[in-house]
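Same chain as my last thread, 137 residues:
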Amino acid sequence: MTADRLLERYFGLFRARDAAGIAALFAPRGLYEFPFLRPRLVGAAEIRAGHAQAFEVAEPRAVELRAVRAAAAVAIAEGRLRARVERDGCDIDLPFAAVAEAENADSGDGLLARLSIYCDAHPYRLWCDGPVMAFGA
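reply #2:
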């Protein structure tokens, strides 16, 4: 699967809150990076557990993906995430950029080698600048 298809599939599974489905998109040593997480998540087990915990503390309300640009192995997109953080009872609404790198993108068996999501998480971080969603540790 190409990087742009993997990126679209990831966000579809994210909207559906499907942590196991998300983990299955990643290569065995796949890397997931998101500013709300610390540390980064590596491998299917960490990626699945991190997303499962995230879905327990935050409810994705809407994810828009637009302006996707891609070659077979790399895709870059912009988007917007709206979610409810249950712990604080607050809504977040933030623009983001995403970069996906696919492994074996030229075959039908392409998996995510890396997915990095970039956004300004500062307004939603705690005073100590710790992660809003304390998962993935």
